[in-house]
Amino acid sequence: MxxxxxAQTRAEGRxxxxxxxxxxxxxxxxxxxxxxxxxxxxxxxxxxGAHEWLGAMYDYGLGTRANRPKAFRHYMIAARLGDINxxxxxxxxxxxxxxxxxxxxxxxRWLTRAADAGDREAMHELGxxxxxxxxxxxxxRRGYLLHRRAAKMGCAEAQYSTGVCLSRGEGxxxxxxxxxxxxxxxxxxxxADAAHNLGYCYREGKGAAKHPRRAEExxxxxxxxxxxxxxxxxxx
Length: 236
Description:
Elements: H1 7-25, H2 29-44, H3 48-60, H4 68-80, H5 84-96, H6 104-116, H7 120-132, H8 140-152, H9 156-168, H10 176-187, H11 192-204, H12 212-235
Helix pairs in contact: 1-2, 2-3, 3-4, 4-5, 5-6, 6-7, 7-8, 8-9, 9-10, 10-11, 11-12
């Protein structure tokens, strides 16, 4: 028999959770261990958000040693209790085979749950299995529409993918000018591949007039964006 936490226990869990969030948001690594211990206490007292954050802490090794299987377990607990961001991460873990055996079918199920709740990152990621037929029948049109919906919500990766679909005529009629627009939107957010493709568009006159100087400028930005991303990944 599962004992539900009392109102007082839940209140204590919420207090511990918000204290932990404050410690992590301070950005001071010295506070991360204290935050991690508080999250464990909050999760034990029924805090859904604490499980989602514990998933992230185990995922990225903040305040504890990275442990992807434990990250997956905490994301799953939070996702089953209705946390949308956790559902997105469960989908990604299944998609990548990270901390759990890869299952495109399960990835689609959890990403769909998050996308239906309005998560733009999940919408974008859900476009991939539709485009490539992973875990469900291939449907490039559906994949493109999911990317575009997320792109309109400001997701840089989706803006890049929308540009790719428009460049290739994948799920939509090819349109170089529209592809250029979405590459530009993504590049303005620091997306390295989108910036590189903008350089190509300017160099070859695809969707915009040929402009060698602008091409070189965007190629240079792409290199800077890529270097910044590598440094960020190394730091994490």
